[in-house]
């Protein structure tokens, strides 16, 4: 973990992205680009939007768990990084979708950052976990049940806020099992709009005090319907 | 930003990267590979990991870059101040060849007009140029951009370069308007007069340094002038 707690002891808003980088994300869309291209473009938009917001820049922390991808497993790709040093990077789509393992790892990473922040006496808002997938998880049913029990319990206990987002072709019913909040479908390939929303939402949350409620921007620009 | 490079494929990565997003490799080195296995456009990006990849193919904004570090920025500011002030003095000397102003007010006015004109031209023309940087910034590998990552317009560059003078002159003028009557009224009370002068010195220093010291107060290292003009200085 490389974050600058010495020069920046501001309150933090950790945000963990669980990104599906499985083979199906390499599917070409009608725009002539793959879903992964669009997601990579969304990450650049995310970086740019964060860097235009001084509060978010000094308070948001990002970590990325990739599901599938070049290692074809659930892996921590980016350890906790302050938004000010975050730079988008291109992810390659390959392999399967072991989402249960990705969720499990995501929860562990969230506990890790919270423990670190507590130890350093730095306040933080409730961490966010954003799950983006385009297909059905390939994890074993037992592992999936175990993972969703953990995510729902963590959410119920106020340890994390989870948002599941299904790209075209995603099993929204399955994704909705992750959280008490229904999964949202990303209309078209509006990754850029999604990540701008995410940046604005994180900015709103990072401005609030721990325990306070923050008003989030409307999701209409990027999603179809809530289920 | 110091990058690491995947030992297997040469992909440049952030220091906090745990596996390579291109090949899944787990070993990273601080030096780029001599013969990277991946497409050149995906590797060894010196400033931004995505630059040149997505901006061309997907028509989106290029990544913006990291805030300028304090020390290079301080050195750049010293170089630029020395150059612009040196030019002012050279201009004063050159003009004196045609006749020296006789009164202190005329000398002060000449210095003020020359200083303001030359520093405005020095900073604004260079910041709005293709290099987006003054000579000092160029030497230190820095440049000025808008919050959207674009080059600043000439108008915005002029405003930004005049802001220190505007804030300083306005602040000082206001203080003089308020303090001068007090000093005059306090004639015969030297302690009060000394306090007024001391307050003037403090305000002078605050107006001079606080806008610049604000770089330490935000993660993007923006001065008050950057905040007002919605600009930032980054590593080029």
What does this structure look like?
With 227 residues, chain A is α/β, with parallel strands linked by helices. Chain A has helices at residues 35-51, 54-59, 99-120, 141-156, 172-176, 191-207, and strands at 13-21, 60-68, 73-82, 128-133, 161-166, 184-186, 223-226. Chain A has one domain: Rossmann fold, CATH 3.40.50.410. In chain A, strands 3-2-1-4-5-6-7 form a 7-stranded mixed sheet. In chain A, strand 5, helix 5 (172-176) and strand 6 form a beta-alpha-beta unit. The radius of gyration of chain A is 16 Å and the shape is globular. Chain B contains 7 helices and 5 strands; from the N terminus they run βββααααβαααβ. In chain B, helix 2 (70-96) packs across helix 3 (104-127), helix 3 (104-127) packs antiparallel against helix 5 and helix 5 runs antiparallel to helix 6 (190-213). The longest helix of chain B is centred in the last third of the chain and has 32 residues, at 154-185. The N and C termini of chain B lie close together (11 Å).
């Amino acid at each position: 973990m490389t974050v600058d707690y010495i020069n920046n002891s501001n309150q933090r808003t950790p945000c963990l992205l669980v990104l599906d980088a499985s083979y199906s994300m390499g599917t070409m869309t009608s725009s002539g680009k793959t879903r992964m291209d669009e997601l990579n473009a969304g990450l650049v938009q995310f970086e740019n939007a964060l860097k235009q917001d001084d509060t978010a820049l000094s308070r948001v922390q990002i970590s990325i768990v990739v599901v599938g991808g070049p290692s074809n497993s659930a892996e921590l790709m980016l350890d906790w990084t302050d938004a000010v040093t975050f730079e988008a990077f291109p992810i390659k789509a390959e392999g399967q979708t072991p989402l249960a393992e990705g969720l499990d790892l995501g929860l562990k990473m969230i506990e890790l950052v919270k423990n670190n922040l507590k130890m350093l006496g730095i306040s933080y808002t409730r961490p966010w976990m954003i799950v983006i997938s385009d297909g059905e998880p390939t994890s074993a049913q037992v592992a999936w049940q175990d993972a969703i029990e953990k995510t729902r319990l963590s959410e119920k206990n106020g340890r994390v806020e989870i948002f599941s987002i299904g790209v075209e072709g995603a099993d929204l019913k399955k994704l909705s099992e992750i959280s008490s909040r229904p999964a949202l479908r990303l209309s078209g390939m509006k990754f850029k709009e999604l990540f701008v929303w995410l940046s604005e939402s994180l900015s709103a949350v990072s401005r609030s005090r721990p325990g306070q409620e923050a008003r989030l921007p409307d999701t209409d620009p990027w999603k179809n319907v809530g289920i | 930003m110091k990058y690491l490079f995947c030992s297997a494929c040469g992909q440049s990565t952030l220091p906090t990267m745990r596996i390579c997003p291109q090949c899944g490799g787990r070993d990273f080195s601080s030096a780029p590979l001599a013969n990277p296995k991946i497409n050149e456009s995906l590797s060894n990006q010196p400033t931004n990991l995505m630059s040149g990849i997505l901006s061309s193919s997907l028509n989106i904004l290029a990544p913006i870059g990291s805030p300028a570090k304090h020390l290079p920025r301080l050195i750049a500011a010293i170089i630029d101040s020395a150059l612009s002030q040196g030019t002012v003095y050279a201009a004063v000397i050159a003009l004196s060849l045609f006749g020296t102003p006789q009164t202190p007010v005329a000398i002060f006015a000449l210095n003020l007009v020359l200083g303001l004109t030359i520093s405005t031209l020095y900073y604004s023309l260079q910041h709005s140029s293709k290099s987006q940087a003054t000579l000092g910034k160029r030497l230190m590998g820095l440049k000025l951009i808008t919050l959207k990552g674009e080059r600043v317009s000439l108008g915005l560059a002029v405003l930004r370069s005049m802001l220190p003078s505007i804030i300083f002159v306005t602040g000082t003028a206001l203080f003089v308007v308020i303090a001068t009557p007090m000093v005059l009224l306090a004639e015969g009370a030297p302690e009060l007069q000394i306090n007024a002068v001391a307050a003037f010195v403090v305000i002078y220093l605050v107006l001079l340094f606080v806008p610049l010291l604000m770089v330490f107060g935000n993660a993007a290292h923006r001065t008050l002038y950057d905040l007002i003009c919605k600009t930032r200085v980054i590593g080029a």
